[in-house]
Amino acid sequence: MAISKILIANRGEIACRVIRTAKKMGIKTVAVYSDADADALHVKQADEAIHIGPSPSNQSYIVIDKILDAIHKSGADAVHPGYGFLSENPAFAEALEKAGIAFIGPPVGAIKAMGDKITSKKLAAEAGVSTVPGHMDLIEDADEAVKIASAIGYPVMIKASAGGGGKGMRIAWNDAEAREGFQSSKNEAKSSFGDDRIFIEKFVDQPRHIEIQVLGDKYGTVLYLGERECSIQRRNQKVVEEAPSPFLDGETRKAMGEQAVALAKAVGYHSAGTVEFIVDGNRNFYFLEMNTRLQVEHPVTELVTGIDLVEQMIRVAAGEKLSFAQDDVTLTGWAIESRLYAEDPYRNFLPSIGRLSRYRPPAEGKRGNGTVIRNDTGVFEGGEISMYYDPMIAKLCTWAPDRITAVDAMGAALDDFEVEGIGHNLPFLSAVMEHPRFRSGKITTAFIAEEFPEGFSGVAPNADAVRALAAIAMVINQTLQKRAVQISGTIGNHRRVVGNSWVVTIAGAEMEGVLETSPDGVFARFGQDAAISVATGWQPGRSHASFHVGGRHMGVKVDLTGSAIRLRWRGIDVTTRVRNPRVAELARLMPIKLPPDTSKMLLCPMPGVITAITVKEGDPVEAGQTLASVEAMKMENVLKAERKGVVKRVAASAGQSLAVDELIMEFE
User: What is the pTM of this model?
Assistant: First the structure.
């Protein structure tokens, strides 16, 4: 059958991604949108758009009848479900089949078999695929969860049967965590998927998360398109992915690929899908689950194989045979994907919402050094980040002939990515790219927990970075001073002279510096250190500029606030002040303003809805005791006491919507 119009039953960047390929193929597209998404980018890019209901996804995007009604209104003859929402819902696929609408995805039987983690593990075991030890039957309550977890042996992974994307998942290391994790996973699963079934399996310590991309047609051909390394995770949510894996050898890749294909064939699979494995330090691999949909991280596979997975899904749905064989699949170069999230890394990665006052991604396409930049996004400058949906803003990807060049290209691309108005994880992503362990490829799913055990508080600049940023601050300051002189003009016969000696306050220290100008350019000198060259085209008013410091290119974000110059680069965030020596001398005499004391308050760490308050006024609390829970962006966040105390006042109640830093309770 020929497909002429595709309705995309999704939103955000994945909807935009499908639209891009459909346009390339000459196929018309239909977007659906909720109240919150009336002005969304996917709505603007589609050929037509249909409103499907209120902002909460359970009243719009995951209501099958509303999607079917939109299909009927638009006359679409095919549906692409993206990922999340209805993408792995067999009832939706069955409804489309009954209505005679092509589903751009796998057959219903495969969704049912693989979409349920419990069933999929049993089928994998029957097919001879090695699986992780665990309890594959449903668990009724927390007491049973504790009993099963103890029998398996801690640590264990508590998972939602219908889960995905890190939602409904908890790691438990003892009985108390198993009890609490069971309930939290159950709540998240019900909220995100409408299915609160839970199972438990052994958590393999120090694992790698590596997945195989499969692709099949309706004529029995199934291929594997290499692997993706997805070990950089936080709270079971992937943050950075790459293809290929720096850990696998050719023999292991082939074995994993063949097992993935065998499993797909066992359930009559066609379309794109992913078989996920956990791999230990000896390259032993164990089946985790199969995702019967397009994965968030699919762009890295596309970049190293040259295969457009969305196009292949559409062609398979239209009844075409795959036009290539397994031997035609080659992996060329290296690709990295960084997920840009609306979450504040300085506040334990809590979700952030608001308006994107500035959104300037790096330019896509080939760079002069042979690297490639790709940015899959669903937002735009001036748009809103809503509390109702997943906090992902964009997927920034780089490709290069080798891994370290791809990593360096990602670092530079993150430097050039401007996002303002909300909290976001760009600084953290930059820190990962610069981390020696990541650059070496010696990573596991414990990387973030091990390397950032206290959370993320920014990157402390080393001596070279301090000198470079101090030099940049001096150049910016002198540019501003000279501009001010030009604006003020001459008073009488006097014009203020801008000196070249400065005192830079940076990273808690003072540095005495001199800017020297010669026919060869501008040079910064600090004390007895060798002078370093500083070249830039920065002009006042620009929030980002390229600097060449000592021959090194640095893409730096610049913010001017009063007399302060804030510089951000590679996860480093420093506020500098550049003063002439006399002003610096006087500044040392000024008192330091202290921040307000909030140590006796529990403040809402993110915009969200209070789902539970577990204490009342007058209750004594112990360190680590659960005080409340907040739901935001489909995730339940448990708030615990930092120290022993007594509740003085409870200012919020269950069901109440709070803004960030709004008072929940205070203590005596």
Answer: 0.83
